[in-house]
Amino acid sequence: MGNSHEEIDIIRRTLRYCEAGTTHMESGLLRNPVSHYANAQRLAQEQAILFREFPIVVGHVSQLASAGDFFTHDETGVPMLVTRTRQGDVKAFMNVCRHRGARIVTEAGGNATTFSCPYHAWTYDLEGRLRGLRQPAGFADLDKSEYGLVELPAFERYGLIWVRPSVSEAPISIDAWLAPMAEQLASVDMASLVVHKAWSVELNMGWRIALEGFQESYHFCSAHKQTACSAYLDNQSVFVDHYPHFRHAVPLAQTVELQQQPEADWDYRANYMDQNYLFPCNFVQVMTDHVFIHSVIPTGPGKSVFKCIMLVPDDVDLSAEQRAKKTRYWEANYNVVCAVFGEDFVIGEGIQQGLSTGVNEHFVIGQYEAGIQLAEKAIGDALDERLVCPQTLTLIE
Ligand code: FES
Ligand SMILES: [Fe+2]
């Protein structure tokens, strides 16, 4: 796929900034109260609003390739069971039995024809309908149709699976919600990729601290001196606001050479790493030839989990030898990214430890750190109910 207008504009801006010796800057400083990072009441509000009312990415379509494939997702505090039905739809349910509330599926993932509760073996089909119960004579008056699994809004778009972790009568429009980022998400063609690795890291830091590591590149050449620094132009990120989401485009070191090339020859994808923020907690990090899907989820005061899925092109057409070589290449990339994230996590955990000292009443967010400013605005809007997930009057997809 060729470059979009937005991508051409990003390249032009990068080259202009480099020539003028400047970079993308917001209009002023943001003084972010430390309470936005370490306050129990604020965290409860964030969990109740950001992680209940908005859809979040829970997986990639290849994780539910066939009917009956399923995985569970628990980090938001809502036990979710996500599966693909015989009709090919993605559905999400509360992973909670309708008899006496036991956790129905205990595995992280797999394939099933039905889901049977471990406590008294009430059994549900892939559509969540209660199909059978052991020794039903004692439940003679029970209307099984009233005891199906509780369904959550689930959507499959751009190769990713989204679930809103709460039940509500109000349907939401995932297309309206993602519309500001539709062009960027479609251009990555994530549905054609496969999972190379999926992993989680428990972090001793609040989720906002982890989130902000992806929202500026000002830190690359200080925090990642020996790793990411040399790969990118120092502090030359371009941010494109697609409220409440945004694109964070980080030019690779060789991008300056595009100055010598006609625009028709420019190849955005070969020259940029994107960290697309999808409100409230996801990033689609697009590298030149692979993609990471990140989720940063609060799990308690000063605690969060970082979930990552590494997506790579399918290698079915390669020979065994080529495949082994490719696997080594992806592993090398995985190791680099783990090293870089490890550097961020050490710093983030240090920030968390310093929060309680009272040294800072606020953090000062510079004009370069545009992504933090954009996200703070969107998060604040959601907490104050100025930003809500769009609803439709039509049926949930
Ligand atoms: S709690 Fe699930 S069958 Fe009893
Ligand atoms: Fe970093």
Written description of the protein model:
The protein has 397 residues and is an alpha+beta fold. It folds into 2 domains: 5-52 and 181-383, Alpha-Beta Complex (Naphthalene 1,2-dioxygenase Alpha Subunit, Chain A, domain 1), CATH 3.90.380; 56-171, Rieske Iron-sulfur Protein. It has 9 helices and 20 strands. The chain has helices at residues 5-20, 40-49, 174-178, 182-188, 207-212, 220-223, 268-271, 320-355, 370-383; strands at residues 30-33, 56-60, 69-73, 80-84, 90-94, 109-111, 114-116, 123-125, 130-132, 151-152, 154-157, 160-163, 193-203, 238-242, 245-251, 272-278, 282-286, 291-300, 303-313, 362-365. The chain has a 7-stranded antiparallel β-sheet with strand order 13-19-18-17-16-15-14, with helices on both faces. A 5-stranded antiparallel β-sheet has the order 6-3-4-5-10, with no helix packed on it. Strand 17 (282-286) and strand 18 (291-300) form a beta hairpin. The two termini are 28 Å apart. The model is unreliable at 393-397 (pLDDT under 50). FE2/S2 (inorganic) cluster (FES) binds at residues 97, 99-102, 117, 119-120, 122.
